[in-house]
């Protein structure tokens, strides 16, 4: 089992361990029991994960002598709302939760964001532990303490920063993950490799074809661990996204706009992949990135089976208009994360609309 510590603001009270391994649940629950973080735990999950893994996880907690109850929320992004958060808080109260209770998020990013959000505001804040079960949640959303729910007008509009007490990433959960969901995580892994780690980029180039939910977890393990460490390093320096953390938005400015324009019918990972291909082309077009580096990174996305072009039916006008509404926009400046070389991103604030349109239409 790999482990490393995330230290926010270098304060011991806000540091937590991220444990990564295969079949680590017994040890995870032992650590939770020893941590003595709460008198009673509520395992928050969604109906899909509950059906696949709920009873087994509950058994491990009970065998360890911990007091635990399961609450299964509806699955999917559409449940990531204030209504679900309020219903969860009311259910917790109804079941006797108090300031000494702790929440455990067992699921993907939706469960993690919702559980973290409710943990951050329930009785002014209780502890939360993450057991991420999608690849995206394992390499991305479980680390860094961002929580939130969506508003009808835009995703993640209401949220808090609430760092967990611990994160337990068990790759064995990926065995039941549908291939499309796996690809969402793969896109975030590719993103981290492109913006931060040329060595990881090389590993991915060699292994892209075998990275699948039923593939060799021993191959995936160091890739997940490395990606988590990249995210950890970035959020330690900039927890609240005032500067450096923005580089994690590589591919996301356009990606979010594509997702919204498609009415969320395009998976996040695919939209971000198209956004990354555009950011790479834009970096090359503006003279920052050598063409060979652009081609290499775009080639990697393709090797992983990720798309690099917008669907033909999608209008660039619609996507451009949505990009203008991105909440990461400051004033009238659109922040684009671009690249000088693999591992050397920077935030560029002055890209003209016509250049973006040209890149989108030429992809
Ligand atoms: N907090 C952050 O820093 C952060 C970062 C990135 C993304 N996010 C958020 O994460 C969310 C996306 O997360 P996601 O992609 O994990 O989606 P998700 O939580 O909706 O999970 C995807 C689907 O997979 C199912 N599932 C989960 N684990 C499974 C397993 N092991 N086997 C079979 N099915 C399983 C779920 O029930 C769901 O249907 C978005 O809401 C996004 O905003 C947050
Ligand atoms: Zn993303």
Structural descriptors:
binds nicotinamide-adenine-dinucleotide; alpha/beta; 363 residues; binds zinc ion; Rossmann fold; Dehydroquinate synthase-like, alpha domain; single chain
Write the layout of secondary structure elements.
Layout: E1 2-7, E2 15-21, H1 25-35, E3 40-46, H2 47-63, E4 68-73, H3 82-94, E5 101-107, H4 109-121, E6 127-132, H5 135-141, E7 149-151, E8 154-158, E9 166-170, H6 179-196, H7 198-207, H8 217-237, H9 252-261, H10 268-285, H11 291-303, H12 316-323, E10 336-341, E11 344-348, H13 353-362
Parallel strand pairs: 2-9, 3-4, 3-5, 5-6, 6-9
Antiparallel strand pairs: 1-2, 7-8, 10-11
The structure holds nicotinamide-adenine-dinucleotide and zinc ion.
What would you say this structure looks like, in words?
By secondary structure, the protein is an alpha/beta fold. The strands form three sheets. It has a seven-stranded mixed sheet, with helices on both faces. A two-stranded antiparallel sheet has the order 7-8. The protein has two domains: 2-177, Rossmann fold (3-Layer(aba) Sandwich), CATH 3.40.50; 185-213 and 240-362, Dehydroquinate synthase-like - alpha domain (Dehydroquinate synthase-like, alpha domain). The termini are far apart. The chain is 47% helix and 17% strand. The structure holds nicotinamide-adenine-dinucleotide and zinc ion (ZN). Zinc ion binds next to helix 10.
Compute the number of helices: 13
Largest sheet: 7 strands, mixed
Any idea how many domains? 2
Q: DSSP strand (E) fraction? A: 15-25%
**Stretches with pLDDT under 50, minimum 5 residues:** none
Order of helical and strand elements: EEHEHEHEHEHEEEHHHHHHHEEH
Q: What overall form do the CA principal axes indicate?
A: globular
CATH topology of the largest domain: Rossmann fold
Based on CA atoms alone, the radius of gyration comes out at 20 Å
Secondary structure class reads: alpha/beta
Return the CATH architecture of the largest domain. 3-Layer(aba) Sandwich
- The helix content, as a percent range, equals 40-55%
Give the overall pLDDT as a whole number. 93
Bound molecules: nicotinamide-adenine-dinucleotide, zinc ion
Give the N-terminus to C-terminus distance in angstroms: 42 Å
* Overall CATH class of the largest domain: Alpha Beta
- Strand line-up across the major sheet: 1-2-9-6-5-3-4
Number of strands: 11
């Amino acid at each position: 089992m790999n482990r490393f510590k995330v230290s926010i603001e270098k304060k011991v009270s806000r540091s937590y361990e991220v444990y990564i391994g295969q079949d680590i649940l017994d040890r995870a629950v032992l650590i939770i029991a020893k941590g003595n973080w709460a008198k009673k735990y509520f395992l928050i999950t969604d109906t899909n994960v509950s059906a696949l893994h709920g009873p087994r996880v509950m058994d491990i907690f009970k065998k360890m002598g911990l007091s635990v109850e399961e609450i299964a929320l509806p699955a999917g992004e559409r449940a990531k709302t204030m209504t679900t958060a309020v219903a969860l808080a009311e259910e917790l109260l109804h079941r006797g939760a108090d300031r000494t209770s702790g929440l455990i998020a067992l699921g993907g990013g939706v469960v993690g964001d919702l559980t973290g959000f409710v943990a951050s505001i329930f009785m002014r804040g209780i502890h939360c532990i993450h057991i991420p079960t999608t690849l995206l949640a394992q390499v991305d959303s479980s680390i860094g303490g961002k929580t939130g729910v969506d508003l009808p007008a835009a995703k993640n509009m209401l949220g808090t920063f609430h760092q967990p007490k611990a994160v337990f990433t068990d790759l064995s959960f990926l065995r039941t993950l549908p291939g499309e969901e796996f690809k969402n995580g793969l896109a975030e892994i590719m993103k981290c490799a492109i913006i931060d780690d040329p060595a990881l980029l090389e590993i991915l180039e060699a292994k892209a074809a075998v990275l699948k939910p039923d593939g060799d977890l021993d191959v995936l393990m160091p890739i997940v661990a490395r990606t988590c460490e990249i995210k950890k390093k970035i959020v330690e320096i900039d927890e609240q996204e005032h500067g450096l953390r923005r580089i994690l938005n590589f591919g996301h400015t356009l990606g979010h706009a594509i997702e919204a324009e498609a009415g969320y019918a395009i998976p996040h990972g695919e939209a971000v992949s198209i956004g990354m291909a555009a950011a790479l082309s834009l970096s090359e077009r503006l003279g920052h990135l050598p063409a060979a580096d652009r081609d290499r990174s775009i080639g990697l996305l393709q090797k992983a089976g990720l798309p690099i072009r917008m669907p033909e039916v999608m209008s660039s006008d619609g996507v451009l208009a949505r990009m203008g509404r991105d909440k990461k926009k400051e004033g009238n400046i659109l922040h684009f994360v671009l690249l000088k070389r693999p591992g050397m991103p920077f935030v560029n604030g002055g890209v003209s609309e016509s250049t973006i349109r040209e890149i989108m239409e030429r992809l």
